[in-house]
Amino acid sequence: MAFLYRARQFFWSLDSRISKEDMEYVERNLNDKEYELFSRLSKQEQKHSIRVARDVDAECSVEGTCSGEMTKIALLHDIGKLKGRLNSIDKSILVIADKVSKGRIRSLDLKKVDVYFNHGLMGSEMLKDCGLSERALFLIENHHNHGIEGDREMDILMKCDSRN
User: Fold this and answer.
1) DSSP code of 30?
2) Backbone φ and ψ of 101, nearest 5°
3) What is the CA radius of gyration of the chain?
4) CB 3.0 to 4.6 Å from 132: which of 5, 68, 110, 136, for a disulfide?
5) pTM value > 0.85
C-alpha cells in the first residue's frame, strides 16, 4: 500500500500544473507574508499542498470538527521544505533508504535528509512571525508525527497529506 501511495505521488509530481483557480484558492486563504513563502515552494510542492488543502476542506466539511485555520495549515504544512530543495527522485530515494535502513538514515548529517525528515519543525519555525496560532504551528510541526493519537485535526491533516 505504501509503495502504491509513493508511486502515485511520484507520477503526480511530474504534472504539477497550477491553474488560475488553484492560485485564486491560495490567495483567498493566505495573507501576503504566507503567500510569499508559499510562492517560493517548487511547483510540485505547491500543487501537493493545494491538493492536500482541498482534501482537508472536504474532510472538515464532512467531519464538522475543524478550526477555520485548517485550509491555511494544509497549504503551509510543507513550507519547511524551503530549507533545501527536494525533487521527486530525492524523496523517492530517501523513502526507500529509510525503509531499507530501518530509520538509521535519519541520523546522517546530510542536508536533504535533515530537510525531508524535519521539514515540519523547520516550517513551524519559519511561520512563527506570520501570525498563525500556536495550534496551527503545532499541527504543521507535527504533521508526520504518528505518535500523536486522538487529535482529530491532526488525523485529518495526516490522512489528506498521505493520500495526496
Assistant:
1) S
2) -85, 0
3) 15
4) 136
5) yes
The whole-angstrom separation of Cα 119 and Cα 138 is 13
DSSP state, 108? Answer: S
Q: How many residues does the chain have?
A: 164
Delimit the domains of the chain by residue range. Answer: 2-162
* Terminal-to-terminal C-alpha distance of the chain: 14
For domain 2-162, the CATH class is mainly alpha
- Neighbour count for residue 14 (Cβ, 10 Å): 8
Q: Which three cell numbers stand for residue 20?
A: 488560475
**What separation in angstroms does the CA of 23 have from each of 17, 33, 47, 134, 140?**
11, 15, 10, 26, 21
When pLDDT is averaged across residues 27-34 and rounded to a whole number, the result is: 96
What pLDDT score does 15 carry? 63
Contact indicator for 79, 71 with CB cutoff of 8 Å:
no
What amino acid occupies position 122? M
> CA dihedral defined by 134, 138, 140, 141, rounded to 10 degrees?
130
